[in-house]
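thoughts on both lines:
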Amino acid sequence: MNDADVSKQIQQMVRFIRQEAEEKANEISVSAEEEFNIEKLQLVEAEKKKIRQEYERKDKQVQVRKKIEYSMQLNASRIKVLQAQDDLVNSMKEAGSKELLNVSQNGNSYKKLLKDLIVQSLLRLKEPSVLLRCRKEDVGFVESVLDSAKKEYAKKATVHPPEIIVDSVYLPPAPSHANEHDLFCSGGVVLASRDGKIVFENTLDARLDVVFRKKLPEIRKLLFGQVAA
């Protein structure tokens, strides 16, 4: 083989090696680019996932805050409604208290009422001797009906007429603008056993309180309808 053939063969070998090297380089480049794209896609997806998770976390926080704010507003509204209902009910009771002041204005009917209250109190106490307390302005009325009250009680209870001592300590007077913050009594009586262990308060104000508490569910139902449990 002469030099020309050798040189030709070497050139062919060089071209082949170069072609193989280029093809290998292309393969490496393509593979590297694919791996880069895959890794880039994975990184992008990972970041997207983190963003979604962060958004979901913040959205949950917003929803929780909205629920808390709604619950607070709802409770505040309920409290306002309940307060308005209580104010209305209390205004009705205050109106009733003012009406009580008219009871003692009619002398004859008030005297009869006092006698009935005394008899009722005696039937509750069932004591042979009692202490009676009333307003200072009612002493005359009370003393005028004591005998008839004793006899009526004795007849109903089939006992001897009791001893009734009118106390020199009086119940508070009727309410007025001058003493609107002081203790007051619209009328009626308080009876107690002589030892003070048994006391029966039968004032007009006490009777209003009892009736009002007893009728309060009915009053609320009439005013506000059936309240859901």
